[in-house]
Specification:
single chain; 9 helices; alpha/beta; 6 strands; binds magnesium ion; globular; 41% helix; binds 6-O-phosphono-alpha-D-glucopyranose
Length: 222
């Protein structure tokens, strides 16, 4: 019998930018708000919002426009943006699942590895429902139950706790710098999704889950 060398028992996935490409919807909704407020906001600026919570994203945009509205106004702006965003994601279909995601998640689940979502988004349940992948995860840790933003490790530690796996037996998949740092802060291994030049702290970086397989995952270097 071949000795099982696997040192991980669970994979925790960020959602936006890893399993689905919702970044463009976030951008379209933030852009609409920025336009209304006469704030110049580009796709490059949008990179800074990846993995960042809704209110923190708003702060970045207001800073770009040198605006300092009161708390009530800020909540109004965040709600406006979220309504537009929800309008976009409520029309999402399974076609918007990023290439290779289903195949990889199914492969690891067949091998007995647990799976969880670790996302800052309060809209996680709606997105999972729209693209029809709720059943692929043993647990969902999202912005509705976790309050400390990445790079705080809370979201990943909560996910690990929900599936009953020790943090050092978990691998996180993340596309944001703050998310990679959150995984490391949780004492977990991390596969970066994107560019190695950006996600310099990840243990391994791939362009997308279409480049992942169980055998590749086993080669991760700690
Ligand atoms: C993810 C995205 C961020 C987004 C955050 C909150 O981390 O990468 O861009 O701001 O979730 O999302 P929400 O859907 O709750 O506004
Ligand atoms: Mg992300």
């Amino acid at each position: 019998m071949i000795k099982n060398k696997m040192i991980f028992k669970a994979c925790i996935f960020d959602l936006d930018g890893v399993i689905v490409d919702t970044a463009r919807y976030h951008f379209m909704a933030w852009k609409r708000l920025a336009d209304q407020l006469n704030i110049k906001f580009t796709e490059k600026d949008n990179e800074r919002l990846k993995g960042v919570s809704r209110m923190d994203s708003l702060e970045i945009i207001l800073e770009l426009g040198n605006m300092k509205p009161d708390r009530k106004k800020k909540e109004e702006f965040a709600a406006l943006k979220n309504n537009w965003y929800v309008d976009f994601i409520s029309r999402m279909t399974p076609n918007e699942i990023l290439p290779g995601s289903l195949e990889f998640i199914q492969e690891i689940r067949k091998a007995g590895i647990k799976t969880a979502i670790g996302s800052a988004s309060k809209n996680t349940p709606m997105i999972l429902g729209r693209v029809g992948i709720e059943k692929l995860f043993d647990a969902v840790a999202d912005g509705n139950i976790v309050h400390k933003a990445k790079p705080d490790p809370e979201v990943f530690l909560t996910g690990a706790h929900m599936i009953g796996i020790e943090p050092d037996k978990c691998v996180v998949f993340e596309d944001a710098i703050a998310g990679v740092q959150a995984a490391l802060n949780a004492g977990m291994m991390c596969v970066g999704i994107g560019s190695p030049a950006v996600l310099t702290k990840a243990h391994m970086v791939v362009a997308g889950l279409h480049e992942m397989s169980l055998s590749k995952l086993k080669k991760i270097k700690i």
